């Protein structure tokens, strides 16, 4: 793991949707402790640090932003605000999930996500990716030392 160096200022800024947003950057030690790296078919999952859309771990599940998941796995995404309903379509798979609910429908059959459920954090929708990957036949590996989740499409 790379060593840490300190910088004189931890303040930074980003431009999100045309607005400058002040970002409080963590120390290197904090970043190493909390970061989650996600690789999909050998490519890093790109999220902008400080945007609120960084992957994180909750109850042992890697949660990634819906947009990043859709891009990485080639999903067509539908969203119904009134029901907080997410629809994911890929090939012959049809997955329906709801924010805060640990059950999803996969091709009309109930699948329980255990303690994980789609959630909204920092105005970003996050999904528990491991169960979705397994349903789609994607191999999933976790390296606890580097905090890296690796997803490899078997197709």
Automatic annotation (TrEMBL):
Protein name: Copper amine oxidase-like N-terminal domain-containing protein
Domain Copper amine oxidase-like N-terminal: 52-149
Source organism of this protein record: Paenibacillus azoreducens
Gene3D superfamilies, sorted: Copper amine oxidase-like, N-terminal domain (3.30.457.10)
Pfam families documented for this protein: Cu_amine_oxidN1 (PF07833)
Highest rank taxon of the organism: Bacteria
Entry-linked InterPro entries: Cu_amine_oxidase-like_N, Mao_N_sf
